[in-house]
Amino acid sequence: MSSNASGASGGRAWELIVYSAQFFFGGWFVFHGLNHWMHFFPQPPGAASVSSQLISALIASGLFDWVKAVEVVAGLALLANRFVPLAAIASFPISIVIGYLNIAIENDANSLYTFFGVLGLNLLIVLGHLDRVLPLFATGNIAPSLAGLKNLLPVNDEAYGNASHTQEGAFSATPRKPLKAWTILLCAVLGTALPVYLTLSTLPQPGEPGAALPASVQSAAGR
Predict the structure, then answer these.
(1) 145 in a domain, yes or no?
(2) pTM greater than the 0.85 cutoff
């Protein structure tokens, strides 16, 4: 096998890995984000008292609404394969908090999976678009300019399409082909179905650590 063929094969495998992470992570964020308003499953309070207090405080203060709104918006962007670098970066603060709570406070087997799963998937997505993210870490003594605002207007579907065959496309450092609409739809459905199944099939049962309190108990506690 030639080096070019080997490189193309490796590049394709990397694309599949990153796309798998992207659509699963996006589906997970959308499902868990919408659950805050649509109540697909009871919100687990956390197995540890500290995490339970934190979640309760976030809900009482209204900040949980914003957290879940970011999850939904970022998740939808990932499922639609649009604004992927921005969505991945915006998701990182939430992923870090989820990861920290699970590894430092909850600290059980499922929490370990959640820690590596959430942060690992988020990191994979960023690595898949690293050429578009690295400019954010410019360390030079640089001055602001109007160049970005002037270049903002041409950013449209045609500009994104040009990124598939030229290095002059919008935000593109390397050429890459966009996914077809039917592929995005199929991946979005599968990417959402799997987190839904995994979440509902692994919810703590009543009496187990981290299980949601019955509605009657929650109502009584809120009085």
Answers:
(1) no
(2) no
